[in-house]
Amino acid sequence: MQQEHHREHYKFTINSLFLKVKITILLLIFSINSFAATYYISSSYTGSNGTSNGSQSRPYISWAHLPTIVAGDFILFKRGESFLGTLPIQSGSKGNPITYGAYDTGDLPIITGLTQVTAWNTKDANGIVESTNAVSALNTLQMVTINDLNTPKARFPKRKTSNKGWRNFTSRTTTSLTDNTISGKPNFTGGEIVVRVRHDIIDRRVIDNHAGSMFTWATSLSGVHDNRIGFGYFLQNHYEALKASGTAVGEWAYTSTNKLQVYVGAGNISSLTVRAASVDRLIDAGGKSFITIQDIHFSGSNDRMVKLTTSNNITFQNCRFNNSGGTAMYFGDSHTISILNNEFNNNNQFGINGEYGCRRFMVKNNTFTNTAQYEGMIHGGYGGNAIYVTDLFSGSHTATSLADTTIIEGNNIIRAGAGGIRISGSYIKAIKNFVYDFSFVKDDVGGIYCADQGTVSTNREISNNIIDYSLGAFEGTPDAADTDWNAGLYFDDESNFVIANNNTVSRVKGIGFFIQRSNNVSASGNTIYDCDRIFRLQYVPLHTSNPETVHSITLNNNIFFSRLASQNTAYFSTRLEQSDIRNFGTLTNNVYARPISGLDPEHIITHTKIWVTGSDQRTRSLNKVTGSIKTEGWNQFSLQDLNSINSPNTIYSDNQLYFNYNNTYSLESFILPSGTWTDVRGNSFLGIILLQPFTSAVLIRTSVEGAPPSNIYYIKKFNKRN
Fold it and tell me: Which of 240, 267, 554, 716 lies in the 20 to 30 Å Cα band around 455?
C-alpha cells in the first residue's frame, strides 16, 4: 500500500513537472510574441528624428533609425513613397519571421538605387549633353532609366543596321580582337567591346587600347570560345558611339570621370527624366533565415538587385523587381526559398538565378517581362534566362530526396533575350509555365532548357508548359542559315532521367523539341507545331575519350505537326553507325503530320555523321535516309513507331489549319471559324472547342463553308494567375 502511494506520488510529481515545462514554453512563446513590434517608416515625415518613435503617427524617416530588430517584428514602409539605399535585413526564427512590408494605401513603397540627374551642360552641337557632376561613385554604370524606361548604352554599329549591328572580326583571342576593316579613327579606347564568344555567350570588356585594327583588354572573355570567322562584335559606352548616325534619344555613355552623357538630338534634356544607379544592390546579405518580404517595389540597381547567400526560409511575395543592371534576384547555396506572385520587369541579366547548391525553391505565379533585352547589357555565361535554378555544387549541399524538390510553376515569361527557364541538377519540376518570345539576343538556348554536363542528376519533370514564338538570334554568328541552335524544349548534355509530358511548343525558328546526348528521357502527350524542325533526337559525343550514349528514350503519344512544306516532322542523327538509331529507345503511338498535299506526309530524316577527332562536327555527313511511317523508309529502318500514324487529312494551304492553346488555370472555350474541323486523332469540332488548362489543339479543316480563314494564332492575355 505504501509502495502504491509512493508510485502515485511519483506519477503526480512527473506530471506536474511536465505541466510546468509546457507552461514555461507557452509563456516563453507568448513573451517573445509580446515583445515583437511593428515599426513604421515614412520618408515624408516632417517631424524631427527626436520625435520619431516608429509608430504610424510618428514614423521613422529611414531604416537607419530602427532599434534592434527581434524575431516576429514587422518593418512597414509607407505606400507611395521612395527610399534610397540598400535595405539591411535581419533573421527571424521558426514561426516568428521578420516581415518587411507596406502600410497605408496607394502604390507599393519603392526601395531604389536610382538617383535623378538634374544638372546638365551641352557637350557639343551633335545633340549630346553631359552631366555637370559625377552621377555615381560606381566604377561602371549598368542601369540608366529615361522617363522610367531601362535604356541601353549607345553602340556602334546600331542594332537596326545589317546583321543587327554585329561586325565580323578578322581574328580573336581571349584578350584581343582584330578587324582589318576598321581603323584607329575614331578611337574607342576607354569604351566597351561586346563580343559574341559563341552562340550562347555574349561578354563585354573595357577597351584598354584601340590601335589601328586591334582592340585589347586585360581580363579574358568568359567561356570556351568558338573562334570561327563570322562571330561578331560591336562597340559601346563611348562618346563616338553617341555621335554615330542612328543614335536614339536617351542612349547614353558613362565617362571615366563618372559623368553621364546622353543623346537628346534636337530636343531638350529638360523633357527627359534621367536616373542613374548609385547603389549596386538593394538587398545584400548572407546567412539569413526566416524572413518575409512582401508588397515592396524594388526599382533600379547597378548589379544584382537582391543577393542572398547561404540563406534559408525566405519568402518574397507580391513584390516588384524592376530595372536591375544585373540579376533581379540571386541566391547562392540557399534553400527553402519561396518566390510567389511577384513581377520582374526590364532586368538586364537574369530574373531569378539560384546556383551552387540551391534546393527547395518554390517559384510560383510570377511574371517576367523583358529579361535581358539588350545585347550590350548582358554578359558572361548563362545570362539572359528569366529563371535559372540549379542544385549543382562542388560541396555536399545538393538535392538528395523528394523533400529537396524545387518547383517552378505557373509563371508567365514574356520576352526573354536568352531562354525562359533553365534547370540543372536533381529534384526539379517545371510545370504549367507559359513562355512567349525568347532567344532574340542569343541562341543555343531553350524556352525550357535542361543540361547536366558531367554530372549525374535524377528526378526532373517538365510538364504542361506552353512555349510559343521565337525568332532566334542567329545574327552575329557564322550559322545564320542554320536554325538548329534554338529550341522550345531543349534537353542537352546528359539531361538524364527527365519526364516531359503534355507540353506545347509552337512557332520556333529552330527546333521544337530537341534531345541531345541524353538518356532515360520519357516524353508523352506533347504537341509540337510549326517549327523549322519539329523534333530532333541526336547523338553527338561531347567527349571523344569517353563518349556519352543516347538510350532509353521513350516517345509515346506525341503530336509532331508541320505547318509548312519546309518543316520536317522528325530528325534522328548519330555519329555512330546508322543502326545506333535503333537503340535510341522506344517510339510508339505518335503522330507525324505533314499534311500539305503532294509531299512526303511525314518527312522523317535519319542522318549519320562519322565522328573524327578534331573535325568540324558540321561537315561530315554520310548515308542519309529519308522515309515515311509505314513505308520502306523510317518504319522498316528503325523498327519503331509500329503503332504511330500520319496526318488523317490532306490540305492545300495552311489556311486550312487552326492552332490554339490555353495558358490559364481555367477551362476556356474558343469560337472556331466556319466549317468542320478535325484533330489528328479523327475527332471533329464544329463552332467551338473547349481547352483544358495548359493544353492546345491543332485542327484541320475538312469541310468548307464560306471563305477559308487565315492561319490563326491567339496570343493569350498575360495576366497574373490566381
Answer: 554
pLDDT band at 16 (very low <50, low <70, confident <90, very high): low
Task: Judge contact between 483 and 236, C-beta under 8 A.
Answer: no
Q: How many residues does the chain have?
A: 722
Please tell me the distance from the alpha carbon of residue 698 to that of residue 678, in angstroms, as a whole number: 8
Q: What is the pLDDT of residues 35-57, one digit of tens each?
A: 789 999 999 998 765 678 999 99
Average pLDDT over residues 569-589: 83
Whether 651 and 700 have beta carbons less than 8 Å apart is answered as: yes
Which residue has 519503331 as its cell numbers? 640
Burial category of 139 from C-beta neighbours within 10 Å (exposed 0-12, middle 13-18, buried 19 and up): exposed
pLDDT, one tens digit per residue, over 298-342 is: 999 999 999 999 999 999 999 999 999 999 999 999 999 999 999
State whether residue 116 is helix, strand or coil: strand
Q: Tell me, what amino acid is at 676?
A: T
Q: Provide the Cα torsion 653, 654, 655, 661; round to 10°.
A: 160
Closest alpha carbon to 571 in 506, 522, 621, 524: 621
Residues 572 and 635: beta-carbon distance below 8 Å: no
Residues pairing with 574 in the sheet: 539, 608
Radius of gyration of the chain (CA): 29
pLDDT for the residue numbered 226:
76
Residue 588 pairs in a beta bridge with 556
Within its chain, how far is the Cα of 395 from the centroid? 26
Please classify residue 643 by burial: count the beta carbons closer than 10 Å to its beta carbon, then call 0-12 exposed, 13-18 middle and 19+ buried.
exposed
* DSSP conformation class of 596: B
Residue in the block written with cell 565580323: 168
The C-alpha cell at 641 is 513507331
Note the pLDDT tens digit of each residue in 251-308. Answer: 999 999 999 999 999 999 999 999 999 999 999 999 999 999 999 999 999 999 999 9
Give 236's strand partners.
155, 192
Kindly report, residue by residue over 139-169, the tens digit of the pLDDT: 999 999 999 999 999 999 999 988 899 999 9
CA–CA dist 511, 533 (Å, integer): 5
Sheet with strand 209-211: strands edge to edge: 171-172, 176-178, 214-216, 209-211
Distance between CA atoms of 624 and 639, rounded to whole angstroms?
17
- Counting Cβ atoms within 10 Å, is residue 34 exposed (0-12), middle (13-18) or buried (19+)? exposed
Distance in Å from the first CA to the final CA of the chain:
68
d(CA 103, CA 299): 18
User: How far is Cα 431 from Cα 570, in angstroms, rounded to an integer?
Assistant: 25
Where along the chain do its domains lie?
2-112, 517-647, 654-703
What is the helix (H) or strand (E) element at residue 636, kind and residue range? helix 634-638
Return the bridge partners of 354, or none.
331, 389
Superfamily of segment(s) 654-703: Golgi alpha-mannosidase II (2.60.40.1180)
Q: Which of 713, 603, 689 is nearest to 647 (CA)?
A: 603
Q: How far is 185 from 166, CA to CA, in rounded Å?
A: 19
Residue 302 CA to its chain's centroid (Å): 19
How many Cβ atoms are within 10 Å of 359's Cβ, its own excluded? 28
Distance CA 143, CA 572 (A): 45
Q: Which residues pair with 271 in a beta bridge?
A: none
What is the distance between the alpha carbons of residues 257 and 134, in angstroms, rounded to a whole number? 7
In this structure, what C-alpha cell is assigned to residue 201?
A: 555567350
Grid coordinates given for 102: 507596406
Query: How far is it, in rounded angstroms, from Cα 505 to Cα 514?
Result: 11
Q: Please report the DSSP string for 15-64 in residue order.
A: HHHHHHHHHHHHHHHHHHHHH--EEEE-TT--S-GGG--SSSSS-BSSGG
Query: Confidence band (pLDDT; 50, 70, 90) for 538?
Result: confident
Task: Find the angle CA(645)-CA(648)-CA(650) to the nearest 5 degrees.
Answer: 125
Closest CA to 679 of 649, 654, 708, 703: 649
Q: Which of 559, 587, 557 is nearest to 572 (CA)?
A: 587
